[in-house]
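Hi everyone, sorry if this is the wrong subforum. Our group has a chain we'd like a structural model of before ordering constructs, and none of us has done structure prediction before. Sequence below.
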Amino acid sequence: MTSLSEFFHLQGELGRFSQAMTLGQTSRRWAWLGDCILDYIVSLELIANMPHANGGDLSIAREKYVSNRSQSRFLTEATDAPLRLQGGLNNHTHGTIFEALLGACFDANGIVETRKAVRQYMTWLEANTRLDDDVTSNEQVLEALQEEINSFNRLIQEVENRRIAAAAAATATAAAAAAAAGVSKQIEDEWEEFFQHQSHEKAKEEVDTTTCTHKSDRIAVEWTSRKRYVHSDYYHPCCGVRAGRDQCLRSLWPDASATHTGVLLIGGSKKAGGGNPQFGCNHVPRGATPRWSCCRRLATSPGCKATIQGNEEVVRSWEKQYEELLRAE
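Answer:
Right subforum, don't worry. Here is the predicted structure as tokens:
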């Protein structure tokens, strides 16, 4: 029966030997290193000893040497490990200890001594392999290969599902973008058509100023909805307020000479709340205030943007006063 410390050339490295046997953090790092080294050295030995074997035969042969079952058999039957380890440990734990000792051997002595240990291990395993061991080993290899095939198939299916999902998302995004572009074009066309038919000459004037202080009569502001219904409401162009308010707001403007040069316009989409004249709803809804075509400001803006030289502070101050005036009423 071989001593573990002698087999792995750790007679003078009792500290490393003890750490490898305790399954602590250091020994697990050595176990990872030993697993890599065992695969490497066994592969080199098999390539040299089986020159005519193909890759599949080499993988099956290597599995016998790197399996936890084989490492556990070696520790329990060929070394004094049973005297050093507590009973009841499974094959996986024995395999981890074997690989940790191999990693410690490499760390202490280098690749030459480590390769000698692996060769002795392989020689012992060849001499002590039974027929049922080979059968069991081959069955384990086939199971492992089948699991790898199943895992690869699952990976392929996942990639295919992601590709299908990405294609569907791209199609949906393209359809949404096309729909948005169509809606935007429709709104743009409606505004363009509306701008073309609005003018001072087409505005319908209805004079009723017996009790009104406005400096100009009210005019009809028309607009067309998406369904081509014509809607209208009335505003005083002198100050931009809706007809029905007798007081003219021009007297409150910071600059009474800052007149607008354009015409009053209002949009005609359903979002603006457009009604259907056929059902007695042909008004401009609350909140759909018209704007001046010259500067795109609200109808109640205190003068054209050009005439007040873009003084935004003046506009904001006036709009605040107008809101307070409406709340007071």
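For your construct planning: Residues 62 and 220 are 94 Å apart (CA to CA). Confidence is low (pLDDT under 50) at residues 199-211, 268-284.
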